[in-house]
Amino acid sequence: GNQSLSRADSSRAMAEGGEGGEDEIQFLRTDDEVVLQCVANIQKEQRKFCLAAEGLGNRLCFLEPTSEAKYVPPDLCICNFVLEQSLSVRALQEMLANTGENASEG
């Protein structure tokens, strides 16, 4: 799916690369907070989801729907992830792309 990153200070890094303009984020630093969002086509509708953690320090994650944010406010505090190491946006996107492909293979 289309993955986009948003940093807590609301600047954005586009997954496509090179479209974000001058304020595009190239590198994420230790202790930066990220929200990971994807867009999926479900029954011909574009639905947005954020990756959310089951609890503090818990590795189990689920998708928090954010398409209906106007009517069903998403619990965004569980969608904030704090980075333990600095890395480039591209490296993070490659990691996410790899996990997605592995999961679909079984």
Oligomer, anyone? single chain
Distance between the termini: 18 Å
Tell me, rounded to a whole number, the average pLDDT. Answer: 77
Count all strands and give the number. Answer: 8
N-to-C SSE series?
EEEEEEEEH
Low-confidence stretches: 7-22
Number of helices: 1
**Helix- and strand-based class?**
alpha+beta
The main β sheet shows up as: 6 strands, antiparallel
CA radius of gyration: 14 Å
How many independent structural domains?
1
* Approximate shape: globular
- Give the helix level as a range of percent: 10-25%
Quote the beta fraction: 35-45%
What would your notes on this structure say?
- One of its GO terms (biological process) is release of sequestered calcium ion into cytosol by sarcoplasmic reticulum.
- InterPro entries: Ins145_P3_rcpt, Ryanodine_IP3_receptor.
- The chain is an alpha+beta fold.
- It has one domain.
- Helices cover 16% and strands 36% of the residues.
- It has one helix and eight strands, in the order E-E-E-E-E-E-E-E-H.
- The strands form two sheets. Strands 1, 2, 4, 5, 6 and 7 form a six-stranded antiparallel beta sheet that branches.
- It is globular.
- About 15% of the residues have low confidence.
Which SSEs are present, and which pair or pack?
Elements: E1 2-7, E2 12-13, E3 27-28, E4 33-42, E5 45-53, E6 61-65, E7 81-82, E8 87-88, H1 89-105
Antiparallel strand pairs: 1-2, 1-4, 3-8, 4-5, 4-7, 5-6
List its salient traits.
106 residues; alpha+beta; six-stranded antiparallel beta sheet; two-stranded antiparallel sheet; 8 strands; 36% strand
